[in-house]
Design a protein that fits this description.
alpha+beta; eight-stranded mixed beta sheet; binds 3,4-dihydroxybenzoic acid; binds flavin-adenine dinucleotide; 19 strands; 12 helices
Length: 390
Amino acid sequence: MRTQVGIIGAGPAGLLLSHVLHLRGISSVVLERRSRDHVERRVRAGVLEQGTVDTLIEAGVGDRMLREGLPHHGIELRYGGAGHRIAFDELVPGRSITVYGQQEVVKDLIEARLAAGGDIRFDVENVALHSLESQPYVTFGDGERLDCDVIAGCDGFHGVSRPSVPEGVLRTFEREYPFAWLGVLAEVTPSAEELIYARNERGFALHSMRSPTVSRFYLQVPPDVDADDWPDERIWDELRARLETVPGFTLATGPIIEKGVTPMRSFVVEPMQYGRLYLAGDAAHIVPPTGAKGLNLAVADVRVLTEALDAYFRDGSTALLDGYSAACLRRVWRAQHFSWWMTTLLHTFDEDDDYGRRLQLSHLDYVTSSEAAATTLAENYVGLPFDLTG
Ligand code: FAD
Ligand code: DHB
């Protein structure tokens, strides 16, 4: 079997890439380890930057997002017994975020791809990458082979693409955090209209949502916890303790329909390419979810890769492909910094002494009282324009 671009992984990066390449007349085959049902049910991100929303609309896959997604024009930072609104509509006029589940984006992309006759193989085992320096090919299943001009490694942090690069080529930058997030989906009307990022002595909590009847929550927990150690009542007690800290706020509760633990990590490899392999999304970089940047960065990488592949297949020009990593990394590092910053601003760290806690509160006070500092948060949160960061 032969195609122009072999894509490993049917997450947001791989699916979007396959779709936009198709719009430019470039063929691809997507190889995904899990089932279609699994990838469509995997509950993860929820916040789409303005640029991600625009990209999905331009690509013709934004109709359901526009109907069902929830546009938000601000978030609340809650700490010290009060809530403070970061007003995107005032600080970065015309730019906002849309709350729309990652698995809904994935469903929309799979549907569009299959409707256009796209080739997505689910449940594919034993994917291996070969001959990355010259004529790349992928083997999978029981000895099947996919020959391609280039390979896009869109298989996430635990995928096979990044480890296929020979030892010593990639440089890794990494930071682990001494906590994880317990994520919870509940059938209950959100208790607030906007997202609440709560800093609390008991640990961080986030109140988000998916629809007018479904809420999404995250709790800072120790890194090694098992979701089964958190029965529903314990989750609600802890969410109440961390969120019911301002006068008049009561948390509505309901049946919990999904829960899972996410480790918190910052990670980047440089360069994001080797030979004819190009890494995109979580395969190349991970951020802690506090800044809601991971999915959005994956989309930004795909934009850069699409232009580079288009130039290559149109007139054989390799300039943009050669510069792919450098073009992506500027935005990647901005998001790395923002995600680290939001994480340290809002979580409790065991090693923090009273001095550290006072610094954190002072920083929060500055962010919520200075227009300059609030604008820094707002413009990073809604996403910097693509031309400013790669
Ligand atoms: P993935 O979604 O990981 O997709 C990779 C795909 O490759 C998967 O389908 C996997 O099954 C497949 N694969 C792996 N190995 C192989 C193999 N060997 N062979 C074939 N296929 C393989 N980001 C945001 O922007 N906003 C948020 O609000 C946000 N919140 C988050 C909350 C949580 C709880 C979590 C866990 C993440 C969050 N993120 C958020 C991050 C976001 O979900 C990821 O950055 C995003 O999924 C990256 O997309 P991707 O396509 O690069 O990788
Ligand atoms: C959601 C996830 C995030 O990481 C975040 O910062 C905000 C919202 C969510 O899943 O809704």
